[in-house]
Every structure is written in C-alpha cells, then in structure tokens.
Sequence to fold (685 residues):
Amino acid sequence: MLRTAAAVVAGKTARALARRRGGGSAFPGLVAERIQPRILRRSLSCVRGGIVVVSGTNGKTTTTKMLVAVLRAHGRSVFTNPTGSNFTRGVLSEMLPQLPLSGRLVSDMVVVELDEAHAMRFIDEVPPTHALLLNVARDQLDRFAEIDHTAALLARLGAASTEGVVANADDPFIARAADAVDVPVRWFGLDASIADRLPELTEHDARFDDEPVTRQYGPGDARLRPVDERVFDIVFDDVTVGPVTLRQRGLAAMINATAATTTARMLLGEAFDAATAATALAAVQPPFGRGEVIIVDGQPLELVLVKNPAGFGVALSTYGTTPVATMIAINDNDADGRDVSWLYDVSFASLRERGVAVTSGMRAYDMALRLHYDDVHTGQVVPDLDTALDAFTAGHPDEPKRIFCTYTAMMALRRTLAARHGLAQFGEDGPQ
Amino acid sequence: MSTEVLEPAGPSKGTITLVHLYPREMSIYGDRGNTHALASRIRRHGYTAEVVLHDPGDDFRHDAHLFMGGGGQDSGQARVEADLGAVGPTLQAMARDGVPMLVICGMYQLFGNSFHTVTGQVLPGLGILDVTTRGNDRRMIGPVCLETEYGRVVGYENHSGSTVLGEGQQPFGRVLSGHGNNGEDGLEGARTLNVIGTYLHGPLLPANPMVSDALIAVAAERATGRPFEPEPMSDPLADEARERQVRRLIGHR
Fold:
C-alpha cells in the first residue's frame, strides 16, 4: 500500500518535471512502475464498467475517440489514453495525475488504444473485459515482421478478453480470431448494399484464399449503411443510429463509428440510447492529423496521416474525390517505418490529373520517383519540411490544400503550423 | 494468370516478355515496384513490354525473356511450393541458358540449394544459386548500401534467414552498410550468369535503374536476336534518391 502511494507520488513528480521540459510521455509511467511493478493492475482494479482495448492496424485513434465520446454522452466517466500514444507506459503516465494515493483509478470505464505489440504487454498485466478488433493490414513490417504474426497477436487479445469481443466481420483475419473466442462476439461491417466498396478499406493482395463469408447479423451486431457521401446509418436489428454526419470524411471514418457504436452498445446494454450515440458521434472532432483542418491564410489545409498501403489507399480514395493542391511528406524514422518500399503498394493514379505540388521529408526524392512511375507530375522536391511548407502555401494561396504525411513528418509540420496558427497541443483537443 | 501489353511511345523494337512469379503470394514489401520499373523502362527503351503475372497453377511461359520474384511470408512460401516444384526444372534450364532473373528475399532463398529451419527441418530449393540459408532467431533489418559491378546500390533488408555462398559463388555485391547475406562475411546476394538473388527491397530497381538496364539488355537480345538498342535517358530522381541514401549510410567515402 505504502509502496503504491510512493509509486504514485514519484510518477506524478516525474510527470510534472517531464512536462515542464516538454518531454516524453512514457517516462513517468516507467518511474512509477519501477517502484510498484503491479501499479497498472492495481490502478485498474476498481474499474467496474469495463476495460476495453481497441486494437488493429488502422483507425485505432479515431475509433477510440468515438467510443469514449459515446460512452461519456451516456453519463459514464471514462479514462482513455492520450491520442496516438498507444503504448502501455503512456497509458500509465496519462493516468498518474488522476490517481489518488491508493493508486486506484476512480472511473466507470477504461478505453485504451494499443498497437498489437503493446496490447500483449497490457493483457499480461490486466485482462481486459472487452476487445475491439478493427483490422489487420501491413503496417511497419520492420517492427511486426509478418502480417500473420500481427493477426496472431490480435487473436491473443481477443482470447484474453473476459466478457466480450467486438470484431470486424469483413476482415478475414479478424473474423477468424473472433470466431475462436469463448466469450460473446458482436460484429460490425458493411451493409450488403455497399459490399462492393470493401476494397476501399482493405488490401486484397493479402487476402487470397479467403472466400467472402456472408455472416448472419444477430442482436447487437451493426451494419454501416451510407445514405450519401457524408451521411450514414448504423443499423442494428432492432434500432438504427442515425442519420449521422461526422466531422471527418470518408468510408473509413464511418466504419470506425460503426465499430465504436457496436462496442458502446455491448458495454452499456439496456442503457444504450440511439439518439444519444448519434449526437455524440456527430460532435467528435477529427484527431490531429486524421483529416484535421487548419485554416492557413483563409484557406483550409488538411493534414492526413499515412502509414501503410491500406491507409494511404483509403486516404486517397476518401480525399481524392475533391481535387486540391497536394503535398506529400515522407520521413523514414522508426515511428514512420524505416522501409519506404510500401509506397510501391499504393496506386497514385488518382493524383495524375492535378499532379503533386511538392514532395518533402527525408525520402522526398523517393516519393517523387514513386509518383514518376505512376505518371504523376511532381512540381518541386524539397526535403526540408518547413521550406517545403512555405513553398507549398506560397504557391497555392487561393485554394484548399492537403498534405499527406508520415508520422514524424506530420509532427514536425504540425509544430510549425501550431507556432504560426495556434493549434491544439499534441494529444489534446482544440477548443470544442 | 493475367497479361498486360505495354507499347512504347514510338515504333516498337520488339516484344520483351516479363514474368512476375507469384505476385500475390510473394511480393510483400513493394516488390511489385520492380516489375513496374522493368516494364516502364522496357517501354522507354522503345520495346513492347508483355507483363505476365504467374499465379500458382498457371501455364508456365517457356518463351519468357525475363523473370522477377519477390519476398513473402512463410504462409506465402507454402502456397507457392507445389507450383515452384513443378516449374522448377524449366526455370533451372532457362537460368543455365542465360535467361535474366531477379529474385528477392524469399524467392532468393528458394532459388538456393536449401533452407534449414530453426527446428532442424531441411527444405530443398531449386539450386539455381549455390547458396544455403539457415533460419535464425535474429532478424536482419535496415537500410543497405552495396558496391556492385553495376555501381553503388541501395535498398532495405528485412530477413531472418542467414545465407552463405558456396565455394566459387559470386555475390551480388559487397556490403558498405547493412547486414547482407548473414551479417558476417560482408557479402550480399548472389549472381550466377544472369540470375541475381538479393535480400534488397526498397524496392530494388526504381532507385537503381542500372540494374534494370543490365537485366533488360540481356532480355532484349534474347527477345529480338539483335544486340540491345537502348535509348539514351537520364534518371535525375532515381540518381538523387540513391545518392542521398548512399551519403546518409556511408558519408562521402
């Protein structure tokens, strides 16, 4: 007990110091963990309403935000990890300021987004009550090595969940994993009327051998049924959530909302209210870098994070329908994925008509070369991000702009944009 | 199987048939970019590119002039095993006859003598390249720069197999930065006649067009019976992309 209190105090102190220095978010968690190795398990021991782990390759951050918003709209207090820091110690660090000295978090529910590898560390400490399994695609293979391995990690996460699993019916890897668990499973997926749009959400080359499965949707399962490009319904067998218009565009955001709503209903049971859910979803701001819009000199500039072939493909089909001036910034730091080979698994044909104004980042020339092979013209190649941003905004003063960027390129660009245009800080939301 | 014919902008000097072996199962790290680069360059040199995607069970194109095969997951390798066994003798004969082939990572290993798994299993390969690969607990990952007979080559490796060349087997290049075949002897890949095996993704060819040209030159000659008639061309983006990587990896040596 005393040890836990000491760990909490040390962690809080470390966090205060780290924040003063503008430093990393894992360190305070590490400090607390050194003193009380079981602190994560202990801190979550009084959470009664559910501990949910959201995992999968694409859409974790958006889906987590939506799920938290829907739960809070139902009056639940929810602890969640800060946007984008999807690792175990980051969860702990974020929790520290809220922890009383008993070390036990006072919250109805916990919803955390974790990548597949960190989800394994989390479940070793704390068995989640529920897992939300989004999708499996090739992502940072230099870290996870093989897609089969990634799928196996998600299957373990599902198997470790004590009360329920929510799973993507349209993803064969996820469906296989969820079919194998002993706890109840709720499914989400595309309505049969838009089954032909599935390729916008998945990479088919990795899916050979998988016959399309027509799954019977039962009580508590939800299908996404778009009304038009921006408006959609989330259809359960007994109730419909919608029509909903999200602040974020695209089919991927809609399926994330469907996943979040299915999970919220499983957690809330009888207390779930369709109108409350619809209102909450409509108010969710896009997480930074996921279609976040910044007004630069009176014109919108969209930042779109890209990190793997499936995600880049989805981003191009989502945003490609409204042609704007385009910049692409590719870095190859660890957080970006050091191997840029994956750019050759994306088709850039949709950019051919307008071309790309600027390529930037450490691999600016590799990106321009990639575009060249798809007959997409590149206006300028400017490896330095700030110089590229200046050239891009100066060259297109009177039109909407869009920057597709890898993680560290986005962080750097966002820092520059924040200094000039007063954006929300990393991991925080802007004024609602 | 699917086949696509890409004509050059002007009159064609002849048709070069390029076969991509198992594009679905064996091209996980953008290796299709190599096929894309070859086809595009064949056209720019004034030849017609016939691009054949060979899937397991398809009729094999005995008349092909150029082959490309990429890396895959273990599950992908298992899916192509039977077909590779069936077309293996033909590939061996064509390789001996001088047909150019580029095989990357998983296909490089399968073109070797054998693969010894961590659990002690021995999986036979096609024996086109005199190399032997052992499964390893350590994964060799990262950017690579090589000195090769085609000049400096850059790419990205990601393999757990540790490959050793047989006596007299030429490497593809010498490692200036990175792990190479096994992280120990400073050698990367293997080359026999016109068959190149290598661990380099990146993908290899777009940023290293001189390797493309070496393969295309042989293929063009086999396709037309005349010496290769290249078009003069400059590759400023590829050269800049490559030279920047060389400088990052080895400085100004």
